[in-house]
Amino acid sequence: MRNQKKTAYISPNAYDETKNFIRQSGYNIVKVNHPDQVSKPVSTHPDIFICKMEFSTSNNNSKIFFGDIKKLGNKYPDEAIYNACATGKYFVHNLKISDSDILDWAEQNGLEFVDVPQGYTRCNLLPVGPSNFITSDMGIFKALNNVGADVLLISNKNVALAGYEYGFLAGCAGIISSDLDLESLNSGKTCIDFGFLVHSDHGVSEIKSEKHTVLFNGDLSAHPDFKKISDFINSCGLSVAWVQNKELSDIGSILCTD
């Protein structure tokens, strides 16, 4: 049995294939569920309660902020006060609604503040590098472009979220580091399909790359901007994995600590 020292905060509504892939990658899974604190559609969304600094340049690996659930409310903006996106360079949120504690945390870590009109920022902003992002929100796109970040603007189609007309792609995804030897693990079970590796034992497909993996809860290849998204992530030095043949489902991000 692998010694699990890493933690992944995830919705209990994530697909079994997603959870299995994360477990096999060496993570202990913590399922998030606070039904009495916020509205039902986001009550299992980790990014409502937690802010993870991705791509930290510090040697301290515990770059994660846990919000005080007693401060949250069951409607906007009260349920979005912690829904910021943080990297080792930027802290991106609608700063008018940000809780003072998370602002203090960002300031203590020396992050550059970027104010955006979208309060559900992390829901619709996927960091794939310290200054590299994917979003379908034009306001976020413009604000980050203005500070010199590299941002890919995509369609908001083909993502489901119960209780809403549609969800956000960033809420389907998380960045994981895997200690799986994928080639050995899938020896004899891997087939090449349009240039992608199909890992049948995990139910996911992966584009091979050098470093961490961006894992999607659902079939990324069904997204209208699939090629742009996968190419952009690969250009940032990350690999891409997704659950095959299942609808992309917004589960409020997958937030991992090492």
Give a written overview of the molecule:
- The chain is an alpha/beta fold and 258 residues long.
- The protein is built from 6 helices and 17 strands.
- The strands form 4 sheets. A 6-stranded mixed sheet has the order 11-15-16-14-13-12. Strands 4-3-5-6-7 form a 5-stranded mixed sheet, with helices on both faces. A 3-stranded mixed sheet has the order 2-1-17, with helices on one face.
- It is globular and about 40 Å long.
Write the layout of secondary structure elements.
Blueprint: E1 6-10, H1 16-24, E2 27-31, H2 46-49, E3 50-54, E4 64-66, E5 85-87, E6 90-93, H3 100-108, E7 112-115, E8 126-129, E9 132-135, H4 138-146, E10 150-153, E11 173-176, H5 182-185, E12 191-193, E13 196-199, E14 204-207, E15 213-216, H6 226-235, E16 239-243, E17 255-257
Parallel strand pairs: 1-2, 3-5, 6-7, 9-10, 15-16
Antiparallel strand pairs: 1-17, 3-4, 5-6, 8-9, 11-15, 12-13, 13-14, 14-16
What is the gist of this entry?
The protein has 258 residues and is an alpha/beta fold. The chain is built from six helices and 17 strands.
